[in-house]
């Protein structure tokens, strides 16, 4: 099993959705248009990030680069 094949448990999926919803609300973008942000969150999750703050930091870093 590759690391990219992991399933995201419901509790963690809810956390990722919450972070994405907050990001979209703050930046006034429709959630359906936030595919790049969703990819960033999933990649960070796969790397082992489980902190909402660190997930938000990853989004901030991607927006500034």
Automatic annotation (TrEMBL):
Organism domain of life: Bacteria
Protein name listed in UniProt: Uncharacterized protein
Lineage of source species: Bacteria, Pseudomonadati, Pseudomonadota, Alphaproteobacteria, Hyphomicrobiales
């Amino acid at each position: 099993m590759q690391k990219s094949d992991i399933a995201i448990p419901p509790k963690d999926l809810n956390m990722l959705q919450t972070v994405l919803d907050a990001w979209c609300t703050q930046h006034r973008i429709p959630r359906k248009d936030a595919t790049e942000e969703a990819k960033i969150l999933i990649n960070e999750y796969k790397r082992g990030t489980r902190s909402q703050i660190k997930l938000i930091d990853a989004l901030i870093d991607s927006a500034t680069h």
